[in-house]
Amino acid sequence: MAEPKSKKHRKDKPWDTPDVAHWKIDQWKEEENPTGMLEESSFATLFPKYREKYLREVWPIVTKALDGYKIVCELNLIEGSMTVRTTRKTSDPYIILKARDLIKLLARSIPVNQAIKILDDEVQCDIIKIGGLVRNKERFVKRRQRLVGPDGATLKAIELLTNCYVLVQGNTVSAMGPYSGLRHVRKIVEDCFHNVHPIYNIKTLMIKRELAKDPALQGENWERFLPVFKKKNIQTKKPHVVREKREYTPFPPAQLPSKVDKEIESGEYFMKEHERKAMKKAAKAAVNLEAKEARKAEKAATFVAPSEKETQKKRKRQEDVAAKGPSVDDLKAKFLAQGSAAKEKKTKVAASVNDFVAGPVTKAKKSKK
């Protein structure tokens, strides 16, 4: 089989053997650089106003943590900035970059207890800028909320699968963890803002984690086990509108007359200012008069007597209703019956009340005798 062009000029690397761990980070030892740093390196970053109070409270913790690595830090409240610098005693040349990441994370609302973990060799950070991925503000807010999930469930799932700490804040997503986890976090975040739901990537990561436990599948391709999510482009049905086919003309449409042209045509252009004002006032008065007349006619319509036909129809309708319903004599008898029943009930109630009142009195009289 012919070798691909991209790998034609590759040469064997005798030092790159399978037992070499490419991602392993060796622990720094003080003996490797006993003389310290010759030149001073420094980094500064700005922080928002609302973080000032918190940073002022936790700055002693930051100072103490950086003192262990011989790094000097400074909090400038006037400029609103944090600065880290190396000293002559600093031995680790990479620790200044870790200190720079520390102040960056503090400026992006990460708690100090979590941010200090960046000084460890195994922990790295990645700040993903999401502000320019979606133009529409409403769409951006919806997709950012989709990344967080209901009650932060989606974000928690991402953290468990990638072994990273993730914080969504404003226009950035800050992540802390190993390199392999940060790679997955960046992919999930960017896909989310390109309208790919995070649950798809989470499902893929879960399957990969289960496959990694099986030693028989270590050297095999896992593509056949992973789900394939196809993007569906569902078009909304638009009403079919048949437009009339216009006759083609190579000439452009005639230019519409301007305001000045219309004034010249009507003669208003040649009028004086007071004449123009009087004409506009007269036109406005005519419109008002027309509206007034319309309102007056509407009010007068309520006082117009109905026609003979309408009255006859109304009378006939009333007669039909009366014919269908009970007669006047029946209603009279019904009301009289109701009245007599109510009277009987009243007399019964009065008699019972009198008996109740009179009962104890007679007993009392007998006892006195």
Show unreliable segments: 361-369
Count of helices?
Answer: 11
Measured as a percent range, the helix fraction is 40-55%
Shape: elongated
What is the C-alpha radius of gyration, as a whole number of Å? 46 Å
Quick one: biggest sheet?
3 strands, antiparallel
Structural class by sheet pairing and helices = mainly alpha
CATH architecture of the domain at 123-229: 2-Layer Sandwich
Strand content: 5-15%
Tally of extended strands? 6
Give the N-to-C terminal Cα separation: 138 Å
CATH superfamily of the domain at 123-229: K Homology domain, type 1
**Named CATH topology of the domain at 123-229:** Ribosomal Protein S8, Chain: A, domain 1
Function: Required for 40S ribosome biogenesis. Involved in nucleolar processing of pre-18S ribosomal RNA and ribosome assembly.
Domain KRR1 small subunit processome component second KH: 123-213
Subcellular location: Nucleus, Nucleolus
GO molecular function, one term: RNA binding
Task: Characterize the structure shown.
This protein has helices spanning 52-67, 95-107, 112-115, 137-148, 153-162, 179-193, 198-212, 259-266, 273-300, 308-324, 328-368, and strands at residues 42-46, 71-76, 81-86, 124-129, 165-169, 172-177. With 369 residues, it is mostly helical. Among the domains are: 31-121, K Homology domain, type 1 (Ribosomal Protein S8, Chain: A, domain 1, 2-Layer Sandwich), CATH 3.30.1370.10; 123-229, 2-Layer Sandwich (Ribosomal Protein S8, Chain: A, domain 1); 261-293.
